[in-house]
Write a structure and sequence with these properties.
Layout: E1 7-11, E2 14-19, H1 28-31, E3 43-48, H2 50-61, E4 65-68, E5 70-72, H3 75-87, E6 96-98, E7 105-109, E8 117-121, E9 143-147, H4 153-156, H5 161-172, E10 176-180, H6 189-192, H7 195-202, E11 208-209, H8 213-220, H9 222-231, H10 234-237, H11 240-252, E12 257-261, E13 267-271, H12 275-279, H13 290-300, E14 304-307, H14 320-333, H15 338-353, H16 365-373
Parallel strand pairs: 1-4, 1-9, 2-7, 5-6, 9-10, 10-11, 11-12
Antiparallel strand pairs: 2-3, 7-8, 12-13, 13-14
Length: 394
């Protein structure tokens, strides 16, 4: 890579094609009748997926990010790389081009007064493998973030062998590692995968795990997930005890920090009590005085936190979870303590919600911190955490 990076963001990327329906009121199933011509407006064309959403949010926050996704040598792949270069000429330098492979794309059908419908081609994402990552040339980065393995065939096949290999190789190079998920179609191969087995293999090599509650409940407790979906949104239904038990289960699998995105309820985070496991975070703070580093390690050990969302006028929620992750990782890289990190995470997610697209609402780092310091109002807290409890390693 051409210059040193703070963070490498790897994983799923696609081209989003979003036709405009204007003020049409006709239901989608009537608009798309076979044999008809439907006149629509201009299309918005942008990049999507974890690499784009989290990576560009980190870039907007001022971090030196390198984006590593896999595309084909086709028009869609060229468009993906061109869009990234509009933000910074070097952002596409680490993209992997696979000759003869279709680049991933999504057609987003979002007519007024109707739920969105996504037509998605996984394309080159299914060809991404652990061998594609140049482990000895990660640009001097301190953190490696990987997103959306359920939408990348090689990383959920064979009980997650590729996912384990990827994170083990990155860990061995001394980088702090982070993982994000997406919820697969229950009827798909990814939806039928044994995610308990996959996570048990990968999480000992993952330092920060930040799925949504919906995603992780689908993966680890399908019966409970289906029960909650029948009565509403799982993220709105779970109390502190249920979140704590689920987080404890993941900490027992070997991860150091677990965070659950709760939609408009905010963010829940729980950390390991194992001093050695939390001690791996020292790799993030190489430019911080030793005494301050040890204070940070102690502050991150054995914590349980919850932060409600900030109040904003919501223009759209696409990408808010990815931007929340960007805020959390940026706070870690900037040597923030846990309380500040979860606050910053939901603040960046709230900024993203102020624009309709995935990441253009994210401002620079100082603007986020100034809004927080100025007393930015919050939504009511809807989660009560139990009294302090021991974590794995304590």
């Amino acid at each position: 890579m051409s210059e040193r990076a703070d963070i490498v963001v790897a994983g799923h990327i696609c081209l989003d094609i979003i036709p405009s329906f204007g003020d049409a009121r006709t239901p989608l199933n009537e608009l798309l009748r076979p044999g008809t011509l439907v006149e629509i407006g201009p299309a918005v064309v942008s990049t999507g997926g974890a690499v784009s959403n989290t990576g560009l949010a980190l870039h907007r926050l001022g971090l030196r990010a390198r984006l590593m996704g896999k595309v084909g040598d086709d028009l869609f792949g060229d468009a993906i790389r061109a869009i990234l270069r509009r933000y910074d000429a070097v952002l596409a330098d680490a993209m992997i081009v696979c000759p003869g492979v279709q680049s991933s794309y999504t057609v987003v059908l979002n007519p007024p007064n109707a739920d969105r419908t996504f037509l998605h081609c996984t394309g080159a994402n299914d060809e991404f493998s652990a061998a594609d990552v140049p482990y000895n040339d990660l640009g001097g980065a301190r953190l490696f973030h990987f997103g959306y393995p359920p939408s990348m065939r090689r990383f959920y096949s064979d009980d997650g062998t590729e996912l384990e290999t990827l994170f083990q190789n990155v860990h061995e190079r001394g980088l702090v590692t982070s993982l994000d998920m997406t919820r697969p179609d229950p009827a798909s191969q990814a939806g039928r995968a044994d995610w308990d087995v996959i996570l048990r293999r990968a999480l000992p090599h993952v330092d920060v795990f930040l799925p949504s509650l919906d995603e992780i409940m689908f993966m680890l407790d399908r019966r409970r997930h289906e029960e909650l979906c029948r009565t509403g949104d799982p993220a709105k239904s779970c109390d502190g005890d249920e979140l704590g038990e689920l987080a404890h289960r993941l900490l027992d699998m070997g991860v150091a920090i677990v965070g659950f995105k709760l939609g408009d309820r905010g963010l829940y985070v729980r950390t390991s009590g194992d001093a050695d496991r939390i001690g791996r975070l020292r790799g993030l703070w190489t430019n911080t005085p030793t005494q301050a580093v040890e204070a940070l390690v102690a502050a991150w050990r054995g914590r349980e936190l919850y932060s409600p969302c900030f109040a904003v006028e919501v223009a759209g929620t696409t990408g808010c979870g990815d931007c929340t992750i960007a805020g959390f990782l940026a706070a870690l890289l900037n040597a923030h303590d846990p309380a500040s990190a979860v606050t910053t995470a939901v603040a960046v997610g709230a900024c993203a919600a102020e624009q309709a697209d995935a990441y253009s609402g994210v401002p620079n780092w100082s603007t986020v911190q100034q809004r927080i310091a100025a007393g930015w109002p919050r939504l009511p807290a809807t989660l009560i955490l139990p009294s302090p409890r021991s974590e794995p390693g304590q």
